[in-house]
Design goal:
The complex is a heterodimer of chains A (about 200) and B (about 400). Chain A has about 200 residues and is α/β, with parallel strands linked by helices. Chain A is about 40% helix and about 20% strand. Chain B has a single domain (about 1-390), classed as Alpha-Beta Barrel (TIM Barrel). Chain B is about 40% helix and about 15% strand. The chains are: A alpha/beta (about 200), B alpha/beta (about 400).
């Protein structure tokens, strides 16, 4: 059965450098999986297209069909590539709003590659002090290498390609071993059990 | 099939003229709305319970008793009664009292409530919501069925030799519904007792409630109360109507756009597509709600939310006229078509008295093969409650 890879891109521009980075990472992960004989199915979630649905979900508590499809894809993914622009010292507000909607159990054991874009390389640690703990809280498994791309990385030999390759290798190894997409989820599991007395 | 209305008793500013009713006006309006419900031929009026602004209904049994005195046939219920933060002893007493005063025209819907601070205000912890709902209801169930109760639990002072008074009318407790938006534990609880399950249904897409109700029906059968299609299901609904569809949309839009729950969020068009809210002609409402049985199976009670979001009393009363005169009579006919004879009607005091008489007059030939809810012995397997017959 094909492995399910989900890509979340929180770029706001059209086109965005965040999506550009997401695509580079995706290609690299997919290539590695295919080289090792794994089939892989990719779902890209562009948060810009879901921005209204995300806000509506925050207000009403339920997801539109389009947003629900995105949430369902995450719940049964074998791997996630999450890429956000860094705004004002952290991931973007839209990115966090989307994460706030995800069921707190839905990402448990999910291998995640975190990546970000920014105007200068001075914000690169936001990946490690903001994005990494966010996914740790959700019991996802974040790969050691996080990839940050500043504007200047797109025009110089700064090692971006190598970082992408290393991170992709780390994620691909975990995706190969993941059985999340094959698990059957019981929507009526009673976590605390039920005893009438 | 029972039709009625339920209210959350919100005091909300009318966004079209910036006026806000006083609490006194809103409370009196609730009574007027309930009387109107009876006048236009509806069966049920259900009142919410809240302990925070902007809601006025903190004391439903007081209000319902006052309404009972001014109505003849209307069945009075709640939407919901807080089984978590209320003392189950007081619920047992209050509703038994109301049941006597209203000559049996009373049932009650249990709910957990949704406002965090209410728990600590009543000395409880919101993280105990589900265990409180389960333990408190177990005690309430016992208090209404056993004369002298010895009891000990985790959340309330123990009882020794306690009798809840008055005893339920004709020794038949008010029928209980359990309301839930998302918790399978509550569907499980309703199924375990053979009580009704009410799905609020108005704020979320129906697919969610289809799953929850399907689960309840399956567990109802599992616990031996009847077949899945005989489980007692209630649904919430929401509508705004004018003769011309576009008039309804234009008039309701400012109320929708500013409503406390979904205002400033999705568009009216998206929300009506994604949830059962129907804004349009009476025929559109008929079509939408006649189709509910296709998704949820034949059910027993349909309640509509008609009086929220700052709608003026005059408008609400006009809506009830349309609901009672044009919509519900057609829905009654539609729901009666092809309804299996084995599917019960919505429970009433009279039907419960008759049911008890029927059960007690039938003596099982072989007691060891008898199957009744009294003989279900609960045991827990894999964290889930299972029942085995006692022999």
């Amino acid at each position: 059965m094909a492995k399910k890879l989900v890509v979340v891109s929180a770029g706001l521009g059209q086109p965005s450098s965040t999506r550009l980075l997401a695509d580079r990472l995706t290609t690299s992960v997919v290539d590695r999986l295919r080289e090792n004989g794994s089939e892989v199915e990719v779902t890209v979630i562009e948060l810009r297209e879901l921005a209204h649905d995300v806000t509506n979900n925050l207000l009403t508590g339920f997801a539109s069909p389009k947003l629900q499809d995105a949430l369902d894809a995450l719940a049964e993914a074998d791997g996630l590539i999450a890429v956000s622009p860094i705004f004002t010292s952290s991931y973007s507000g839209l990115f966090k709003s989307f994460v706030d909607i995800i069921d707190t159990q839905a990402l448990t054991d999910l291998p995640v590659l975190i990546a970000a874009t920014g105007g200068t390389e001075r914000h690169s640690l936001a990946l490690d002090y903001a994005m990494r703990p966010l996914f740790s809280y959700l019991h996802a498994v974040v790969v050691p290498t996080a990839v940050y791309a500043a504007s200047s990385d797109w025009g110089s030999d700064s090692g971006l390609v190598e970082r992408i390759g290393r991170a992709a290798g780390e994620l691909a190894a975990l995706v190969r071993d993941s059985d999340r997409s094959a698990q059957v989820r019981d929507p009526f599991a009673l976590p605390a059990g039920f005893s009438p007395f | 099939m029972q039709f009625g209305i339920f209210t959350v008793s919100d005091v909300t500013t009318d966004p079209t003229n910036d006026t806000t009713p006083t609490e006194h006006e809103r409370i009196k309006a609730l009574v007027t709305i309930a009387r109107k419900a009876e006048e236009v031929g509806l069966d049920v009026f259900a009142l919410g319970e809240h302990h925070n602004e902007p809601f006025v209904s903190s004391s439903p049994t007081t209000t319902l008793a006052y309404i009972a005195a001014q109505t003849e046939n209307l069945l009075l219920s709640t939407s919901t009664t807080l089984i978590t933060t209320n003392d189950p002893v007081k619920i047992a007493e209050d509703f038994a009292m109301l049941q006597h005063l209203a000559d049996g025209r009373v049932d009650v819907m249990m709910g957990r409530g949704n406002t965090g601070p209410v728990y600590p205000w009543f000395g409880k912890d919101i993280r105990d919501g589900i265990p409180l709902a389960i333990e408190n209801y177990a005690l309430l169930h016992k208090l209404w069925r056993e004369h002298t109760v010895d009891w000990q639990g985790k959340y309330r002072t123990p009882l020794q030799g306690f009798t809840s008074t008055p005893r339920p009318l004709d020794d038949v407790p008010p029928f209980v519904w359990h309301g839930s938006i998302r918790s399978p534990e509550i569907a499980e609880q309703a199924a375990y007792y053979g009580d009704g399950f009410f799905a609020n249904n108005i704020f979320w897409p129906k697919e969610h409630y289809m799953k929850l109700i399907g689960y309840y029906r399956q567990r109802f059968e599992h616990y031996g109360h009847g077949t899945a299609e005989q489980a007692i299901v209630g649904l919430g609904g929401q509508a705004f109507m004018r003769a011309k569809s576009q008039d309804a949309v234009n008039e309701f839009r400012p109320y929708f756009d500013n409503a406390p729950v979904y205002g400033h969020g999705p568009s009216l068009e998206d929300f009506t597509e994604q949830t059962p809210l129907t804004v349009g002609s009476p025929q559109q409402v008929i079509d939408r709600y006649a189709s509910m049985r296709d998704f949820f199976g034949d059910y027993q009670r349909q309640l509509f939310l008609m009086d929220h979001a700052g709608l003026p009393l005059k408008t609400v009363l006009e809506q009830l006229d349309i609901l009672g005169e044009e919509v519900v009579p057609v829905l009654r006919r539609e729901f009666a078509k092809n309804r299996p004879a084995t599917v019960p009607d919505g429970p009433t005091h009279a039907s419960l008295v008759a049911q008890r008489a029927a059960t007690s007059s039938v003596q099982p030939i072989d007691a060891s093969n008898a199957r009744s809810s009294d003989q279900l012995v609960p045991s827990v397997h894999d964290g889930r409650l299972d029942s085995t017959e006692a022999n």
